Amino acid sequence: MARSEPQRPWSRVPLAAVGILAGALTLHVLLHRAHPFVSPAAADLGPPPSAGLVQAASLGDPLAAAKLLNLVLQAHDNQPGLSVPFASLDYAMVTRWLGRILDLDPAGAYPLLAASRLYGEIPDAARVRVMLEFVHDRFTENPSVRWPYLAHAAHVARHRLSDPLLARRYAATLRRHAAGTTMPAWVRQMEVLLLADMDEAAAARVLLGALLDSGQVNDPAEYRFLLSRIDGSFGRSTTAPGEAK
Description:
The protein folds into 2 domains: 47-167; 184-245. The model is unreliable at 34-42 and 233-241 (pLDDT under 50). The chain is mainly α. Helix content is 61%, strand content 2%. Strands 1-2 form a two-stranded antiparallel ribbon. The protein has helices at 15-34, 51-57, 62-76, 91-104, 110-118, 125-139, 143-159, 164-176, 185-197, 201-214, 220-231, and strands spanning 78-79, 82-83.
């Protein structure tokens, strides 16, 4: 096994080499002071490119264009040297990107999913409201497909934002567009149940009557459930219209 050579003492290092080393260290210090390190700053999210420009870049394929914008928007959250927290983004600009993506791919779920479940999950009520409003505004374009995202928005408004009036507004929009769609019964029931929770029993009864008249509630068991919640008699026997007492 070869022995390691003993280290040369500083006294044997040529003075010229020591001078070069000292000069290099001094130059490094001076350069550091003249140009201090600056932490990387997040680049602002600018407006999305026009739909025509994106389609041209994707050879006229709107679905490919939507996916391209998806990637660009997602990449903005992870810029070189740093990770951009959602809470620091310009949410008005984010909605413009999501809206452009939805325009290119109306059947796609990503923009509404991202708005309600991704960008809408931060502890910033003002920004969350921006995302919920985006979901609400775009829901009516395709209620049969987009109802789950507005239903989630109503849940967020009621339980995370503690804003029953906003939750009722979203539930009312769901109820008005429920006819002729595949929305489940609990979606139609949301507004009635919210009114009952808000101690608005009279308004809840009027709405329940309207649902009966329109045929949106035609199951006696569903009627009994809703009426028991309005009256605070959940679990007790309640007779539905048309049923024998």
